[in-house]
Specification:
heterodimer; A: mainly alpha; Enzyme I, Chain A, domain 2; 3 domains; B: alpha+beta; four-stranded antiparallel beta sheet; 21 helices; flat
Chain lengths: ~425, ~500
Amino acid sequence: MNLHLLQGEEAKAEAEILMKVQENLMSPRFGGIIIGGLHDHISGCFLLTYNDKTFSKEKTSEILATFKYKGKFPEIHEENGESVVYGKDIFSVLLPKDLNIEYKAKACFHCEVCQTAKCPYGAYVIVKNGKLKQGIIDENSIGSFKGRIIERIIRDHGTTAGRIFIDNVTKLGIAVVTLIGFTTSIDDEDIPTEAKRQIAEALQKAQNKINTLVTAYEHGELESLPGRSLEETLEMEIMRVTGRARDMAGEVASKYLGLNNSAVIMAKSGARGSMLNLSQMSGCVGQQAVRGERISRGYKYRTLPHFKTRDLGASAKGFVANSYKSGLNPTEYFFHSMGGREGLVDTAVRTSRSGYMQRRLVNALEDLKVESDGTVRHTGGEIIQFKYGEDGVDPTRSTAGKAVDLNRIIFDVKQEE
Amino acid sequence: MAKPVSKKKISQKKGEKKSMKLAQPKITSVKTKKQIMKKVAKIKVLKPKKKLKEVKSTLEEKRPVDKKMKKKTTAPEKKIEKKKEPERTFLPPPIKTVEEPKEYKMIRAEINKVLKNHFLPISIIDGIVEFVARDKKLETKLKYIVEKAYEEYAKNIIDPTEACGMIGAQSIGEPGTQMTMRTFHYAGVAEINVTLGLPRLIEIVDARSSPSTPMMNIYLRDEYRVNPDLAKEIANKIEITRLTDVADIEMDLVNITISIRPNKKTMEKKGITIDELLERVKSIRKLSAKIEKDTVKVTLDEPGYKILQNTNETLKNLKIKGIDGIKRVIIRKEPNEGYIIYSEGSNLKEVLDIEGVDPYRTTTNDIHAVARELGIEAARNMIIHEANATLSEQGLNVDMRHIMLVADVMTADGTVRAIGRHGVSGEKSSVLSRAAFEITVNHLLLASQRGESDELNGVAENIIVGQPVNLGTGAIELVMNTRKPKQKGK
């Protein structure tokens, strides 16, 4: 094993300033954080702050002890003769006292008119003077790339405070998740027979729609879209119908999967997986595609010998009506593998292509430097920009690309009133 | 192997040529600086709303410079040709500039009073004005807001010696691995296929002479954009219509004639009369045509089966109406805008000359066409816009400053150069840097032939010789007294 040690004071100082993990929490690519909580950290914080969850004094101590909390004990409330602590108050323990922020959580339902402070789902986060007043803490609060709270703490209190916050919030999440218990298994995707019937009905409807489209096409009654051939029109229409069918199945499935379901909690909080994954597991997998079209390759005029030649129906062209849980039949499995293979090839080709592009970009731009007068010059002296990025602002320090976070300044001014 | 004598001569000639080329960059760099200065001055005065006349005049200025950069053999002829080109007959009216409301101006003046001589980017000032104008209560706090904004701005300024190019390159390269490879996607208009994702990004960076899926968004002016008939008329002028699209062509092998039967319905739809069609047919050499009833009869001047066959082919491809390169158009009504024409295929020059087209907003994804017609500054903006659109379409977030830097490097010398060995990287002044990239042997060989020297200014050169790089912390030399902290301790 080779051990590389820093030689000299300058190297030590540079390593301290440039190489520490806490100095690299912010990305120069877009001026946001790239390090944050994930998986159980997010699930844990979600469970902690969702629906005014309460903990007994003992449990609270247990949670706080995991990150060796030494401050004031969170506020104790009397409820039904028991002394309890609100989960939101436990979370607030980590927040700096001058934190004021409002934003939408990941679990937001995207209502047409946001009711902000009166959000019926509690998905609008309000932090006032370092106290979580309302809202669910999820990916948009502590996740990497999106965590608004982490980002704000780093901006206001420096990278050390940011590092400590990330350390503590992740420990808090794990503590809550281990305390409450959190598990998921295949029966999380179980849906009642009524839901199954509804899904089957929706799929049958789509099937019928496709059949009528195909017969219309065969009888030459199909009207082509402007600028498209008849075949293309048919394909586009069918793709739309199959897409809709999948969405319908997903909608039905998610209607029966509530927030008492661990898998749904993970999807909604952004910890892992998505509602699409869930609807594919319990509802219907949907249309498989190669090159953005329904599967059409294989044998002469047909995809597999299981079908008649020139069959344009849904199942002959790669529509998977089953869910992952109910199981795919042999032809569906094969089509699914075709779609999956395309993904693999895509990744293999893409890495080499984007790698070469990156090498060329680096070689073309490596000699550029911001001079003391604010201009960007080639090492030869040729001026490329008179002011870096037209405003001379470092993207790392910018707020999502903006030189100054005006929204925040205005928000603070209004808060003071 | 050829004789040594001739070889020497060739190499000498090559050497001469190359030395001339070598001398050129100096001249061009001076010119580019001037150009940039000019541009900057112009931008400050006019902002983006340049009048077409001025754009044209700058274009005229630019042309000779562009020509010099190309090979000398073709330059003189083209120059003469271009000068003979007739002036544009139709000039659109100047763009209507919306006067800013008085209160906006007041707030602006107030902000400038607070700022005194300090610089704050216009975008921020605009933002403050917007906020304050919307909420009157903030007016009393204006001084505080501006001071706070300036304080934050000063804090966010980039450090000197920052290797901004390297950061920019990595920032654009990194999301490439997350992009999809799928070439076709529907962008806005479902009927038009556009290359997106990684292939499109590579295309932009490569500065290909024409995009793989050229397309235009043609905006219309005034009444044209609200009246569907006028919009349709413009669309007909733009979309290419070939003879086979509007008529059936029949060869009569007995009489050696061709009869063209126009389809009345489509002719009407495209707004073509039979006389116009006849005119177009007559434009082909060595044939005569006349109208008989509803058909156009074509007879050959020199009858023969071979010629008949050939004429039939030319007739099939005969352009009746429209602009070359524009294959298909789609008219869409957009909210708050009216009718917009989307086209598959692109020909910026001719589309801009059509009356009713708004030349200020019409865009194409053909960057070279933009550079030719509207100038290098427009091409730079186009690169930024296209690259940013491609990245954000994929849901990737990259700071505009990185994209701007790439666009500026590509257009710094007044032409659109590719990122790669045929463009920016191949024209670097340092031999070692060029050799470190691609075609190593050729670069080293030619450099030794010419006796080039390397100033060791860049990154690659310094790494090759094992020195600290002249960027970032490497650009600063520190002397430190190591004893001092110890004394403090005692």
